[in-house]
Amino acid sequence: MGHIALLDKLKSSGMIMPLDYHLALFFIRQSKLTDSLALSRFAFLIVWLNIEVRAGHVCINITQITKHNLEYRFGREYVTRIFSDLDEPTWHDWIKLCERVGQNIISDGSCLSPLIRNDNRIYFQRMWLYEKHVAAYFNSALTCQVVERQANQLLNDLFPSTSASHDIDWQKVAAALAVIHPVAIISGGPGTGKTTTISKILAVLVSMHQHDSLSPLRIVAAAPTGKAAARLTESLSKAISTLPVPKSIKQRIPIEALTLHRLLGASSNNRQYRYHQGNPLSIDILLIDEASMIDLPMMSSVIAALPNNARLILLGDKEQLSSVEAGAVFGDLCAQLQRGYSEQQVQMISQLTGYVLEAKSAQVSIADHVCLLQKSYRFSSESGIGLLANAIKAGRYPHVMTLLQSKNYSDLTFHEISCRDQYQQAVEQCANNYLNYLQIIISKSNDIKTILDSFAQFRLLCALREGPFGVLGLNEMIERLLAQKKVINLIKRDGWYIGRPIMILKNSFSLGLFNGDIGITLPSLDDANKLKVYFLLPNGEIKGVAPFRLPEHETAYAMTIHKSQGSEFGSVSIILPNEYSPLLTRSLLYTAVTRAKNHITLYSPYTIIEKTINTQIERQSGLANLLI
Ligand SMILES: Nc1ncnc2c1ncn2[C@@H]1O[C@H](COP(=O)(O)OP(=O)(O)OP(=O)(O)O)[C@@H](O)[C@H]1O
Fold first, then answer.
1. Which residues form the UvrD-like helicase C-terminal domain (predicted)?
2. Which residues fall in the annotated binding site?
């Protein structure tokens, strides 16, 4: 089959987008290939690379372009037909093909061709450059600072050992590691004390600095989304207020977190950031929460904007979904921990904390900069949510089902969905959870914060956007059900009604609203005949915006699990679809479950839970190979 016929076939069956099609043609026109089979294979390679980058991979590994590996995206039957059209290529064939295409198209990076081949990985040039930049930064950070006696005392004061336990306090180890190294990477699940630990780390660093210098440390806290920044602001201010350190130290620790876009000085009319290598930020310490959400291009931009001697502390949960865009930098960095701590690191940790850890390597590596916090202080051993999150993380389906079906956990509820009626009931139950905030509105309360807080107590999460089990279908059903209960009035003004919750889908720097921000439509405080959408800003202020001024947005009774990342709700209901989709992965379910503070209700067929837990997609990237 010729390459045009192949591309037409892929396009007409909806397997590729017009962009994939035209990109393949563009590269083919410039390649040195002439025979029909090679052209078809090359067209497929380009299409596959583009699909995978769109799905969040940084590159593709040509040895893994096999029928088995492609099935999850195209389905078995379709892949079999495509491979037959391509005359059953083996991975040797793909490698030979890359060698024949021509250096002007695929090179090893020595000339800047649009595609780069590194070992068996194929990249678009842009991704390859980002990856090299990020790897060079972390490799250059493999230095240790001399441990001062004072640090030891400060750590002992902030992390007092309890005589009852001889366990290692990993929070203290994480803090020691952040004092020793200019770059620290701390990962932990919900409630493992990431915020508590970072507040103590900052207190140690500020205290140490106070003795050396009169000018205060310039510390900035940031997060990838507005919601995550708002949460960080709240949790950091709480953690700092309880620190057992003098007021003068607390006052030097910032409590307001920015979004990364704002930190870098993004503007709505310019794709360039104000801060970059040529105009670095004026800061000494940058702390970023929810770091698993940072994609490769953003990580590259952040480190480009850091001044030479600035410290970087990344906090996150490596088990959560990776960023929407390409890359899994935080996960790749945390994965380095398997190399073990070096002898040098173990010695320094011992000096600072008194703990004797096991050295697994003679060489220093980025593993020395990583610490995992495993003990949850939020969920007790009786908490179903904590146990469920751990069972999902470990991929233990039978244990997950035992927990879900057990009556011993008051914070877990499971409803099997096996027919349409059960699905309808599930949505009705979810809709009822939204009655509280609507009742507050109906009672004519002007207390916008209470309304927003009440709405944040519950959220319906789902995996998909399209279809009856997706955000769009669920939002429509919930709107209809709430209208039947007469708590909202769907006689809309251009789609707007009192009580409509919306989520922002695009950043608006001029309005100060960011992707993921949630607002509720209410009568305007200035003129009750008009509507405004009210948002709670990270600094605690309420902002009202006329609907017509809002950037892209959608109704937000149901939201995708991807969008919920960085947020937390009192109770969460999760509705999984009745058919398997490649989006259903272990990290997706883990992320959904860890959004809840008090209660989880899961609605799903058994088979879907099993398949979701058994599906783990590793993001393709070459970062691990580039790290020393
Ligand atoms: N070492 C500790 N001993 C006792 N309680 C702790 C300890 N560390 C943290 N906590 C408590 O556990 C709770 C969760 O801590 P924290 O908010 O720091 O965790 P987190 O990992 O930042 O949570 P998340 O990111 O999931 O919001 C807080 O109430 C905190 O006071």
1. 556-602
2. 188-195
In percent, the amount of the chain with pLDDT more than 70 equals: 97
Nearest CA to ligand 1 atom 12: 377
Q: Say if ligand 1 is within 6 A of residue 322 CB.
A: no
Ranking 116-120, 146-150, 508-512, 582-586 by mean pLDDT, the lowest is: 146-150
Q: Is the CB of 199 under 6 A from ligand 1?
A: no
Backbone angles phi, psi at 310, to 5 degrees: -70, 145
Residues in contact with 403: Cβ distance below 8 Å, sequence separation at least 6, in sequence order:
384, 387, 388, 391, 409, 412
What secondary structure does DSSP assign to 367-399, as a single string? GGGEEEE---SSS-TT-HHHHHHHHHHTT-HHH
Ligand 1 mean position, distance from CA 140 (Å):
32
Q: What is the pLDDT at residue 270?
A: 64
**pLDDT of 418:** 86
Q: Which atom of ligand 1 is nearest to the CA of 159?
A: 1
pTM: 0.88
Distance between CA atoms of 77 and 66, rounded to whole angstroms?
14
Strands 596-604, 311-316: pairing is unpaired
pLDDT of residue 9: 85
Q: Which of 196, 255, 572 to mutate to test the pocket of ligand 1 (most atoms within 8 A of CB)?
A: 196
Instruction: Report how far ligand 1's centroid is from the alpha carbon of 266 (Å).
Output: 32
375 Cα: distance to centroid of ligand 1 (angstroms): 10
| Coil, helix or strand at residue 544 | strand
φ, ψ at 209 (rounded to 5°) = -70, -35
Give me ligand 1 centre to Cα 193, in Å.
3
